[in-house]
């Protein structure tokens, strides 16, 4: 009887080994050996795609250092891994290609949780929440969303505002820029009538422009969550990032970052 049981156990072990080998050879990612998590822990370096010209999410200051709301998250993530962080500048349009080509281990650059994005990249649990607002010069006749008809409205390529303008404001005239800083400058210089951007970016615009601009008194458009993005298929890396965000969002560091850059506490819905 014992010999028969031993034969059965050996057979089952062999079948299991073959099944695991089949999974590995099929090209699936996310095993301990192939995971970005293992690479980062081994190399002690993490490459993070961030904005360099989109306050308050991320900017490069005059000293050549990155700073901002997302930069705080990236540095905290690197610290949690005992790794050195290497920043790579991203734009709205380049964020997903950077993941697909392996130029970044993770994107932390105001990546909104759109369903179509979740079809091509893996998105973590939210680390922030936001909506889209419209900013105009203080003396502008634009008072409501309806007034955007026939007006030139700035936003950035590949962004949520660009999608909103196309889908919900067909009578407006979108003026799309590669970088958030360019769209802000277009509003400042009078090249456009209005700017549509996220609540966080608008907070930065209001802080820098003061009484020269005002935000339309209307509900935010497309309320949404914001997540880290990684390449599809790496479940181990995704699990770690979700765990990091869960712990970070209830930390003192998160409260300080939110208050410093956005002027508010961490929203309860993402804790």
Automatic annotation (TrEMBL):
Residues 45-265 form the Solute-binding protein family 3/N-terminal domain. InterPro entries: Bact_solute-bind_prot3, Solute-binding_3/MltF_N. Keywords: Signal, Transport. GO terms for biological process: amino acid transport. SUPFAM superfamilies: Periplasmic binding protein-like II. The keyword rRNA-binding does not apply. Gene3D superfamilies: Periplasmic binding protein-like II. GO terms for cellular component: extracellular region; outer membrane-bounded periplasmic space. Residues 1-19 form the signal peptide. The keyword Repeat does not apply. Pfam families: SBP_bac_3. Belongs to the bacterial solute-binding protein 3 family. This is Glutamate binding protein. It comes from Mycolicibacterium neworleansense. The lineage of its organism: Bacteria, Bacillati, Actinomycetota, Actinomycetes, Mycobacteriales.
